[in-house]
Amino acid sequence: MTLSISPELTSAEQVLSSLATQAKPKVTDAEMMQAVRTLLIGLGEDPDREGLKDTPKRVMKALQFLTKGYHESLDELLNGAVFTEDANEMVLVRDIDIFSSCEHHILPIIGRAHVAYIPNGKVIGLSKVARICEMYARRLQVQERLTFQIADALQRLLKPQGVAVVIEATHMCMVMRGVQKPGSWTVTSAMRGVFADDARTREEFMNLIRHKPSFS
Ligand SMILES: [Zn+2]
Questions:
Q1: What's 136's domain CATH number?
Q2: Model pLDDT, residue 23
Q3: Are 170 and 186 in contact (CB under 8 A)?
Q4: How many domains does the chain contain in total?
Q5: CATH number at residue 51
Q6: Which structural domain, as residue segments, surrounds residue 60?
Q7: One domain for residues 98 and 171
């Protein structure tokens, strides 16, 4: 397998900005809870009734958890788990659960990611691949950006021969509102290096993610 540089590889600045962690929020918890309270009133609710009393706090906490990826960085997350290894076969981590939130409606995006790379002297702990997916998923996202952020992070970290990321997901903003199409799902992909340049390598990856494992 030859080393190739994909023309679609994003510029260094784009990669850096996509990897940067968000600055600390300038609003207080009290202000965030007040905003949720205002929303409840706007929706016609009584925020002081028993069932809703703690809702502003719960909503704030839930949203903070669902977007905690803003406060994580690749460096902390990896904690040195990049190893030198003389491997050059495809490494594939399939069926990584994705729980993200769409940036247009702050409603769930639920799906699965399949991530492959072909090493070029460096490998990463397999669990770290899932952790990278989670770090980017736990932000306000569009599925396309989530997909290429994962690909570009691995490309930058490992400088592999190639990276392939496919995400299959359903968007609650489409299922529960708007076009109301339960069962609809969206597939996005990002191919870097040999996966972009070589149709056979890409096809091998696509076959591997379609194949149903015999143990499940
Ligand atoms: Zn949406």
A1: 3.30.1130.10
A2: 60
A3: yes
A4: 2
A5: 1.10.286.10
A6: 12-66
A7: yes
The answer to whether the pTM exceeds 0.90 is no
- How does pLDDT run across 67-88, given as a tens digit for each residue? 999 999 998 888 888 899 888 8
Expressed in angstroms and rounded, the spacing between residue 204 Cα and the centre of ligand 1 is 32
Catalytically active residues, by annotation: 102-105, 143, 171, 173
The C-alpha torsion from 74 through 201 and 205 to 164, rounded to 10°, is 20
Cβ atoms within 10 Å, residue 153: 23
Highest mean pLDDT among 6-20, 56-70, 202-216: 56-70
8 A C-beta contact, residue 161 and residue 4: yes
Are 111 and 42 within one domain? no
Over residues 166-215, the pLDDT tens digits come to 999 999 998 888 777 777 889 999 999 999 999 999 999 999 999 776 66
* Cα 107 to middle of ligand 1, angstroms: 6
The amino acid occupying position 193 is: G
CA of 199 to the centre of ligand 1 (A): 33
Mark whether 176 and 102 lie in a shared domain.
yes
Same domain, 42 and 121: no
Give residue 175 CA to ligand 1 midpoint distance, Å.
10
